[in-house]
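Fill in residues.
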């Protein structure tokens, strides 16, 4: 029999992987009940959970929105709506990562439309969350500060920011285009541009974080608190930045966001291992005898796809996804994610956001999702 072309074999691979991930989502939902999954033990598949989801809760609701789009099954829609409702307790928290929580937890449901069963609830909550997030903007600093319950390592949540919060600005762009004030988009763009200024190095790599004087905006330091060293390049800093900058360009079509995203992407592609799956920090001298981070790698695949539906970046994303499927997708779970190596926390685990970004990338490659997410 004549072998299928690479594109057709890819479609088969994607469809099979999506089915396996949907089965894993079913098992996760049964296991966690009304809690939110955080990280799962690689040996048992058992999840550590949190009642309010912490900063990752939106990725669980987001997986459920995507699962409904992929399958059409009403149970996924109902689970997504219920999980989204449980995220509302986070609205009062002055944490920039609420952008992640409510973009993926609520706005994605509104973007996908039919996933919400024509319910207005996702859009209503996303708009409410966007207004709350934007109210934290500090014009002197030029960004929405990291805030409380954020894992700040400096003890100055008013003057600290990090690249992790950049993708959550999509919540503000979505809200500005869907009934919210146009000022929401302006705040998102100022936040993004400030992070390009504070976090992007000349070679395209990224500092994870910066500390400024919240009264004047003067830069005090730039560093990578979750990486190996302050001047190192933490893999997830690159992946958060790529997704955030690429999404900003998709929403605004502004060239400076595209340039920033391409510089991050090109740096990653030039420095990633030959097998395409990143180690947790690009500067770890123990490579290759150290931790991988499949969650950062899946995020990069999703980010590359946001840079264009054709051409080099899409081909690179497809190769990354194939590598993850062939070596790290076990019973529908993306294994070997590294949450926090420095604290010895979930260093070889399934991570809820890793699952989300791999499923998103698969659905884009398979043609089931094409929207700006």
């Amino acid at each position: 029999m004549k072998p299928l072309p690479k594109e057709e074999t890819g479609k088969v691979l994607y469809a099979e992987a999506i089915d396996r991930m949907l089965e894993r989502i079913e098992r996760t939902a049964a296991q966690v009940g009304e809690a939110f999954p955080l990280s799962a033990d690689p040996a048992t598949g058992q999840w550590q959970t949190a009642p309010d989801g912490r900063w990752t809760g939106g990725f669980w609701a987001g997986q459920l929105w995507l699962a409904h789009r992929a399958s059409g099954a009403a149970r996924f829609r109902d689970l997504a709506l219920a999980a989204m409702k449980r995220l509302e307790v986070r609205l009062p928290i002055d944490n920039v990562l609420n952008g992640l929580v409510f973009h993926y937890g609520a706005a994605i449901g509104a973007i996908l439309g039919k996933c919400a069963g024509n319910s207005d609830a996702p859009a209503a909550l996303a708009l409410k969350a966007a207004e709350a997030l934007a109210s934290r903007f500090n014009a002197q600093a030029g960004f929405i500060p990291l805030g409380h319950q954020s894992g700040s390592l400096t003890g100055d949540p008013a003057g600290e920011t990090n690249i992790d919060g950049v993708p959550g600005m999509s919540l503000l762009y979505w809200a500005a285009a869907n009934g919210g004030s146009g000022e929401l988009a302006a705040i998102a763009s100022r936040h993004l541009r400030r992070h390009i200024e504070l976090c992007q190095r000349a070679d395209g790599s990224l500092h994870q974080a910066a500390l400024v004087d919240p009264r004047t905006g003067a830069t005090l330091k730039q560093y990578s608190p979750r990486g190996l060293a302050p001047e190192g390049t933490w893999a997830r800093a690159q992946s958060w930045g790529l997704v955030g900058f690429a999404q900003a360009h998709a929403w605004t079509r502004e060239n400076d966001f595209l340039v920033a995203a391409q510089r991050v992407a090109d740096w990653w592609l030039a420095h990633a291992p030959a097998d395409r799956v990143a180690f947790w920090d690009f500067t770890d001298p123990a490579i290759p005898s150290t931790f991988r981070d499949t969650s950062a790698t899946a995020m990069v695949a999703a980010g590359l796809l946001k840079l264009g539906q054709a051409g080099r970046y899409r081909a690179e994303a497809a190769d990354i996804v194939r590598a993850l499927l062939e070596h790290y997708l076990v019973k529908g779970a993306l294994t070997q994610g590294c949450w926090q190596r420095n604290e010895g926390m979930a260093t070889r685990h399934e991570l809820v956001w890793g699952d989300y970004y791999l499923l998103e990338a698969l659905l884009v490659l398979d043609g089931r999702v094409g929207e700006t997410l």
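The longest strand covers residues 36-40.
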